[in-house]
Amino acid sequence: MPSEKPKRDPPAPPPIDEVPRDLPLTAENIVKLASVGLTRAELAAYFDVTEEFLAVKYAKALSRGRARRTVWLRKLQMKSAEEGNVSIQIMLGKQELKQGEDPAATEDRVIRRRTVDRAKKPLPPLPPTSVDEGAKEPDA
User: Distance of CA 78 to CAs 11, 15, 20, 44, Å?
Assistant: First the structure.
């Protein structure tokens, strides 16, 4: 049975300062530049081609570069969260666990909880009113 290769994490994208200014147009270079965060428009300008050309001819390289950047950023986020960065923990909770701040959802949860709480115990009696019970309210 052949041994399986262990999966390696993709390398971190190179710092933008280290990207040479005269790279030839190859799939490998598209991956490198996309992993640094260059948009399709920026890549087209860099290589002096159209965006449509890049989208058609180098679609797979663009996707790979963007995926590499996404994985790298996620790893940094998780590392920060594990080190106790509360802001990142909250952000990840909102993104991945759907723990958003949707007021409608929050209000719905509060209403349901109050309804359940009230069902468990009777409501207190209403306080006496100072208005004579038989008196009519004036017409407006």
Answer: 16, 20, 30, 32
Pick the range with the lowest mean pLDDT from 86-90, 91-95, 99-103: 99-103
Instruction: Give the span between the Cα atoms of 111 and 105, in whole angstroms.
Output: 10
- Angstrom distance (rounded) from CA 26 to CA 10: 19
pTM equals 0.54
Max intra-chain CA distance, the chain: 94
Q: What is the DSSP string of 4-69?
A: PPPPPPPPPPPPGGGS-SS----HHHHHHHHHHT--HHHHHHHHTS-HHHHHHHTHHHHHHHHHHH
Cα–Cα distances (Å) from 48 to 27, 36, 67, 89, in that order, read 15, 18, 24, 41
Supply the pLDDT for residue 7: 62
